[in-house]
Structures are given as C-alpha cells and as structure tokens.
C-alpha cells in the first residue's frame, strides 16, 4: 500500500479520485461517489456521477471523453473517507 503525507491527517494510504470529487468537496457540492470493486482495497479509485455516465457510454472503459474528463487527483485515505461520506449524502463534519 502506497502512502501520502496529508497536511491534515498525516501519513495515510494514497488514493485516487476524479477531479470532480475533490472540487465538489471543496465547494461542498455533492457530485456522487462511485468506486471500483476491489476486496483487497477498501479505498479503491473513485469517481463522480458525470464520470460514471461517461464511462458507461464507453462500455466501462476509461477512454476518449471518459478519460479526458477524469483528471485523477491524489487524496489521503482519511480525505477519501470524508469525500465518500459527503458525496453519498452524509455530513462528515458533524
């Protein structure tokens, strides 16, 4: 497992999400949260509703428009958990 040093959470698992998940979290605007099924990684790559629609249009492949708009961003594991709760409708700040 690769790690990243987060200025808020310290050393954490490195995770990747689409740019929209990060931007939505910053703006506190829910964009949805989908993730790859990986029983060995509870924090697998994740993406928003719009990216999910684009990848569905390519038959599940991250190519063309789906890949162009993804622009993956690195998050620490704790930030990933916070983003997941928020984008699925919860309030991680309460």
Characterization of the model:
- With 94 residues, the protein is α+β, with helices and mostly antiparallel strands.
- The chain has 4 helices and 5 strands, in the order E-E-H-E-E-H-H-E-H.
- The protein has a 3-stranded antiparallel β-sheet.
- The longest helix is centred in the last third of the chain and has 11 residues, at 77-87.
- The radius of gyration is 13 Å and the shape is globular.
Explain the layout of strands and helices.
Blueprint lengths: L2 E4 L3 E8 L1 H9 L6 E2 L10 E2 L1 H9 L6 H7 L2 E4 H11 L7
Antiparallel strand pairs: 1-2, 2-5, 3-4
Helix pairs in contact: 2-3
User: What proportion of the residues is helical, as a percent range?
Assistant: 25-40%
Q: What's the pLDDT, averaged over the residues?
A: 95
Uncertain residue ranges: none
Largest sheet, strands/sense/barrel: 3 strands, antiparallel
- The counted number of beta strands is 5
The helix/strand order is EEHEEHHEH
What fraction strand? 15-25%
Structure classification: alpha+beta
Identify the notable features of this structure and list them briefly.
two-stranded antiparallel ribbon; alpha+beta; 5 strands; three-stranded antiparallel beta sheet; globular
